[in-house]
TrEMBL record:
<dbReference type="InterPro" id="IPR003439">
    <property type="entry name" value="ABC_transporter-like_ATP-bd"/>
</dbReference>
<dbReference type="GO" id="GO:0005524">
    <property type="term" value="F:ATP binding"/>
</dbReference>
<dbReference type="InterPro" id="IPR027417">
    <property type="entry name" value="P-loop_NTPase"/>
</dbReference>
<keyword id="KW-0813">Transport</keyword>
<keyword id="KW-0067">ATP-binding</keyword>
<dbReference type="InterPro" id="IPR017871">
    <property type="entry name" value="ABC_transporter-like_CS"/>
</dbReference>
<dbReference type="InterPro" id="IPR003593">
    <property type="entry name" value="AAA+_ATPase"/>
</dbReference>
<dbReference type="Pfam" id="PF00005">
    <property type="entry name" value="ABC_tran"/>
</dbReference>
<comment type="similarity">
    <text>Belongs to the ABC transporter superfamily.</text>
</comment>
<protein>
    <submittedName>
        <fullName>ABC transporter ATP-binding protein</fullName>
    </submittedName>
</protein>
<keyword id="KW-0547">Nucleotide-binding</keyword>
<feature type="domain" description="ABC transporter">
    <location>
        <begin position="4"/>
        <end position="229"/>
    </location>
</feature>
């Protein structure tokens, strides 16, 4: 199977370094989420992998070969970087047929991917009449056209309705299950958490993390327990006696960091404290991501007042 290999990749634009010494691999059989703040270098890296820019130093290869060296590249790599790239005067079907002809892909394949992406009913409408979500589906159809071993998608859920987002999630999982190499750039943390097996995280052009998603989350977000009681004074006293510090929230519940549900439950029971609610607060990808990248964002807004 084919993997994406990035080795010591560097790209400068007019003295500004967009990516700096990146080294990572995207392996087949799993969905790799490609994360980072705006300006982190994700789009530049994807362009370098696809031969749309030339690196200042280092290399980016697909199955050991640079993208420009691939014959009939759509048969090897499918990519969506810009959903607006299709010519507005062509129909969706003709757009795909032109791409197919350029890579010796049979015409019937255009109709197959139009059906697969839910665009069969609008295949003969001009692209300029498509909504953003329809253009996004057309871009995904183009990426699937050559039945490639490698699929690279930049913000594939952009503009899609809830049904479309679920469909993309299922598509990505299926592609990985078939043994393909799948790289997906996204700013939607909750959505990435629903499909990614592995993460590559950039910040200011440098590699911050290259790790399985579950390990990334659990390494950066401390366990926390949520508890609600009718006797908060007794609860706080019991927790303090065992070295736990509880934080009260405006809606009346308490949180205990670095704690497990079983431990807090046994502690409360031994102290005779009535517990109305007791649950583990699940660590999220969003929490872990912000913990890692908070100092790496190029553009940040002022925090909102409560």
């Amino acid at each position: 199977m084919t993997s994406i290999e990035v080795h010591d990749l560097t790209k400068e634009y007019g003295g500004r370094r967009a990516v700096h010494g990146l080294t990572f691999r995207v392996l087949p059989g799993r969905v790799t989420g490609f994360l980072g703040p705006n300006g982190a270098g994700k789009s530049t890296t994807m362009r370098l992998v696809l031969g749309l820019d030339r690196p200042t130093a280092g290399s980016a290869t697909i199955g050991g070969r640079a993208y420009p060296a691939l014959r009939e590249p759509l048969r090897h790599v499918g990519a969506l970087l810009d959903a607006q790239a299709a010519h507005g005067s062509r129909t969706g079907r003709d757009h795909l047929r032109v791409l197919a002809a350029s890579n010796r892909i049979p015409d019937r394949r255009a109709d197959e991917v139009l059906e697969e992406t839910g665009l069969a009913s609008v295949a003969r409408r001009r692209v300029r009449t498509y909504s953003l979500g329809m253009r996004q589906r057309l871009g995904i159809a183009a990426a699937l056209l050559g039945d490639p071993e490698v699929v690279m998608l930049d913000e594939p859920s952009n503009g899609l309705d809830p049904e479309g987002i679920v469909w993309v999630r299922q598509l990505l999982r299926r592609l990985a299950k078939e043994g393909r190499t799948v790289l997906v750039s996204s700013h939607l943390m909750n959505e990435t958490a629903s499909f990614a097996d592995h993460l590559v995280v950039l910040g200011r052009g440098r590699l911050l993390a290259d790790t399985p998603m579950r390990e990334f989350v659990h390494a950066r977000v401390r366990p926390r327990v949520r508890v609600r009681t009718s006797d908060p004074v007794a609860l706080r006293r019991a927790l303090a006696e065992h070295g736990h510090e509880a934080v009260e929230h405006v809606d009346g519940h308490w949180t205990v960091d670095h704690a497990r549900v079983d431990d807090i439950g046994r502690l409360a029971a031994a102290a005779g404290v009535a517990v109305l609610e007791l649950a583990a607060e699940e660590a999220t990808l969003e929490q872990a991501y912000f913990d890692l990248t908070s100092a790496e964002a190029e553009f940040t807004a002022q925090p909102q007042e409560a």
